[in-house]
Specification:
This protein is of the alpha+beta class. Helix content is 24%, strand content 35%.
Length: 327
Amino acid sequence: MVTRKIGFLLLTVVSLGVLWGCGGRPMMGAPGKETTMSQPRPAAQTTAPQTVTQAPRITHKGPKLRVGIVDFVNKTSYGAGRLGSSASDILTTELFKTGAFIIVERAQLKQVLGEQALAQTGAVNPETAAQVGKVLGLNALVTGSVSQFGVSTGGADYGIYKQKVQTAKCTVDVRVVEASTGQLLFADSGKGEFERKAQEVLGLGTRAGYDETLGQEALRSAITKFMDNLVQQLQNVEWSGRIASVSGRDIYINVGRDVGLKMGDTLIVQTLGKEIYDPQTKVLLGREEGGIKGELTVTGYVGDKLTKARVRVGTGFLVNDVVKVKQ
């Protein structure tokens, strides 16, 4: 009996060697189907899963922007809404790893925006952007959508050898909005693809059922396509803060140590300019350039959320006045 089992195994190994030595390969079927191949075809190179490039850590100069990332909208029939939150989770991680931004937690955004905000369209209207920017001290909002997603399945069946290949493809759109006005600053999209193979010999091996990580890796692949442009566009946004309290000649700014203001930095104080609305659509277009009140010198920090400054020149500083770094 043992001799018979050994002989059967040897025959199997030889058969597999002959099969692959003759150049046979799995034949991909139509999406959603498996194609059985009765005879080997000429050999061809199989495509390895696409390597996902990680966002590089960049050297940032000046104060870090406070950025809020809203849950992306899932416009596809896949994922029961989870694809959108997965996309925003991945983008949050990639932006955080650059070391150039302070990412505001989405729980804080939901408190300001409300649980139902953005659920239908994913768009940030100017009033909403201005509200969340003021309350959370944001410089920019990032939103977007998963506009396309699909999974195709193919494979081959040689009897004793079977292979199943699943490929996820998606398109992710992203938008950057200036937090104080809701003005669209940047829009881009990326296409991603991720492939997974499962093999089985004599009933042994891996079996391929749908795994959510397949979709997540495809999303990551799409997001990394526009990461460089996204980071560059965000860095073009001018940093600003607000006066949170005035105590004589001591001024407290609504940003903490993590923003990166240094002792001795000079800040320009401006009034919050008048809002400008489109005369026809009544949409907020932006603000007038506020008048300059004076300058401050950064002197220290108070806890984790306040920067202390001293009046250098000027008078009449008020809570909610805008502060910018003097170039």
